[in-house]
Every structure is written in structure tokens, then in C-alpha cells.
Amino acid sequence: MVRKMRIRKKPFGNKNNIGQKVIKLRKKKGYSQKDLLTRIQLLGWDLDDAVLSKIEGQERSIKYDEQKILAQALGVGPDELDNDNE
Asked: Scanning 59, 64, 67, 74, which has its CA 20 to 30 A from the CA of 44?
């Protein structure tokens, strides 16, 4: 099955500074949003796809504890998700 990549139509928000980095790392690892969501849920955060999409689109703020789980699911340290640490 060939997955069709959707192109983001909305501009990024300003409620967090990690969304674009999450997208970059997720794609680098070859994870779909669903793959990442499954990994996050296995770590104990009951996150749904709409919220993950809002985090990636920087339309939802994120707590540091949530950032730690996201980072763990992506196999990086929590501070590596900051856009300034590229």
C-alpha cells in the first residue's frame, strides 16, 4: 500500500516550540502519526490522533512531562525536541 503524504495547509501555530521538530524526527524514523501514537500510548500517555496533530502543528501547548514521553517515543532526549537544538 502506498501512503499518500498530506501537505500541511494551515500555518504552524505558536503554542509550543517542538511541533516541527517532532514531525522531522518522526519522518526521519519512518514513523507515521499512527506509529508514533501507538508508541506514546504504550508509554502510558492516552493521547489521540487529533491532539498529536495539534501538537505537531504547534496549536496546543505541551507540558514538560508530555515532552519527555514524546521524546522517549522518538528515541531522543526531551531537550532535543526544542527547535533551537537542531
From this structure: 59
What residues contact 3, with CB distance under 8 A and at least 6 apart? 32
Place of cell 519522518: 27
Instruction: Give the distance from CA 4 to its chain's centroid.
Output: 19
* Distance from the first to the final alpha carbon of the chain: 33
58 has a pLDDT exceeding 90: yes
Considering only CA atoms, which of 70, 16, 76 is closest in space to residue 45? 70
Say whether pLDDT at 38 is over 70.
Answer: yes
Split at pLDDT 50, 70, 90, the class of 3 is low
Compute CA 73 distance to the chain's CA centroid, rounded to the nearest angstrom.
9
